[in-house]
Every structure is written in C-alpha cells, then in structure tokens.
Specification:
Elements (H helix, E strand, L loop, with lengths): L13 H14 L12 H12 L7 H5 L3 E3 L5 E13 L5 E11 L3 E3 L1 H12 L2 E2 L1 H16 L3 E10 H4 L10 E8 H4 L1 H10 L1
Parallel strand pairs: 2-5
Antiparallel strand pairs: 1-4, 2-3, 3-6, 6-7
Helix pairs in contact: 1-2, 4-5
The chain binds zinc ion.
Zinc ion (ZN) binds next to loops.
Amino acid sequence: MKKKNSSSVKAPDEKRIAALVKELLVELGEDPERDGLVKTPMRVAKSLAFLTRGYRQNLKAVVNGAYFKSGTNHMVILKDIELYSLCEHHMLPFYGKCAIGYISQGKVLGVSKLARIVDMFARRLQIQERLTEEIANAVMAESGAEGVGVVIHARHLCMAMRGVEKQNSEMTTSAVLGSFRTDEKVRQEFLSLI
Ligand code: ZN
C-alpha cells in the first residue's frame, strides 16, 4: 500500500467514530445509554482524533524554519523527552522517554522543535522500532546533521495489562545515522551522555 503524504490526510469524522464506538460498547456487553456512558462515544472519538493527529501534521510545518546558525559541530543532546504513543497491534498506549543527539553542520534545531518532531510521529499508530527510526530520519533531514542518534525507552500497556502481563519490562530501541553509525567513538560519546 502506498503511504499517504501526511499533510494530505483529512481529519477523521468524529461523528462516525462515535457511532462505531457506540456499537463497540454494545458488543462488549455495555449499555451505551446509561448515564456514565452517554457521552463516552464522542469523548473517545475526540480523544482518538487527538492521539492520531500526527497523521495530519507534516515535518516542514512542525519545524517551521526554526533553525539557529552555529559555528560549532559538537554534539547536541536532548534527553528525557516524554513520549506517548499507541501500539499499532492493540491500539493500547506505550509511553516512555526519548533521547536525541546529533552533530550539526552549522545548523541547530530549536529544542522545542525536537520535542514536536517526537510528538508528530508518536501521535500515530506505531511500533517503537519504526517510531525511533522515523524520528532519527526526520532530525537528519531537517538539521542536515552529519550524524543522528535516537534512543527510546518505553513501557507497553499491551504487555503489562494483557498477553504476557509483564508489568515492569521496558523496551529499548535505538537508531543511528551518519557518523553515529560509522564512527564508534561518536556513538560511544552519545551513549555515555544519555
Ligand atoms: Zn501492542
């Protein structure tokens, strides 16, 4: 299937999602007309629209030209970026922290922009491995860096609440590009700093 251009994805029809959620409630054995649930379908629809809004964002608009010129080409690191996403297998949350490092070639991205890039890809149905790679590729493309490294530590509710019911396991994924991939010393410096 051809991947849609993210900026061309239209906003979801919240009324239709709400109707589907109402059917889902019935199928689960609930009464969607009872007090506590009357407004739930529309709440779920709005919540899902928010949690998947990354499909309707695009990188250029998110970064919006927020670069700073910098003479140095030292490593820039932003860590402990909070991350909340939904796994594409169960549509259950996974959440954790992301660290991004890159070596600029004269162009530095604003710190808040790095966090927005993380959100743009996290607010979609994801697997942690792809999320990590997409963030790395986006930072590389937008900063023109000589190398980029991204590490994510996350807990998956689909593992904690169901399936193997492992409440305390944490998954770690990393993606390294450019000099972070080819230069062992650069990679080690990154890993020791995060
Ligand atoms: Zn899952």
